[in-house]
Design a protein that fits this description.
about 210 residues, 6 helices, mainly alpha
């Protein structure tokens, strides 16, 4: 009995030593071609320039989306293992829902069709002010009412942009607070494997 078990163990170790280099080579190639796990493709940003403070919320949310949509945590993680894990799962779903359903509904007030942007035909870029300076800006409006409406929409847009920035910051902080639950989690499969190993070990001890 012991001889048979010992031979099986040696065969298993030999097979592992032979296949391990192949497995490592396969993973090396995969991580650099079809499975670039270190690369984050942000699907919510269109091609073009985006300020880094805006990229940050998109990158963090993309990581959350990858976790939910690719790793399928609802099917492999025991989210009811303890109270803190259960609360984290509720928060993860809330953040995912916000990004996929609430965030896209944002509309800048200045994009209202009832307000037309004045044509900037005269001006220059002031390096000292880091801004485009327009001469006789008021003359570019159709009429005083148009000018007043545009300025009001501009103020509304600035306030809207500030609220969005504050909301994004709050959501990023919430995501950071539960970052540990996106990684080091004991899955159902890991638990089953642990208990099977434990049962086998106890069985071998009882035989001796």
């Amino acid at each position: 009995m012991e001889t048979s078990s010992s031979n099986a163990s040696r065969s298993s170790e030999l097979l592992h030593s032979l296949t391990r280099p192949l497995h490592q080579a396969f993973r090396w190639v995969g991580y650099r071609t079809w499975n670039k796990h270190h690369v984050i493709k942000i699907h919510s940003l269109a091609p073009g320039w985006t300020d880094m403070d805006e990229v940050l919320i998109h990158a963090m949310s993309q990581i959350l989306c990858n976790f939910i949509e690719k790793e399928k945590p609802a099917t492999v993680i025991d989210w009811n293992s303890d109270e803190s894990t259960a609360k984290a799962w509720v928060e993860i779903q809330a953040l995912y829902h916000w990004w996929k359903n609430e965030h896209p509904k944002r509309v800048d007030p200045i994009t209202d069709d009832s307000v037309s942007c004045p044509k900037i035909s005269r001006g220059h870029f002031d390096i000292q002010k880091d801004a485009y300076v327009v001469r006789d800006f008021g003359s570019l409006f159709k009429n005083p009412e148009h000018e007043q409406l545009w300025k009001q929409k501009s103020d509304d847009s600035s306030a809207w942009e500030k609220r969005c920035h504050e909301e994004d910051t709050a959501m990023m902080r919430r995501l950071i607070d539960i970052r540990d639950f996106l990684g080091r989690i004991v899955t159902k499969w890991q638990k089953q494997r642990f208990f099977c190993t434990l049962v086998n070990a106890l069985g071998e001890q009882s035989e001796h």
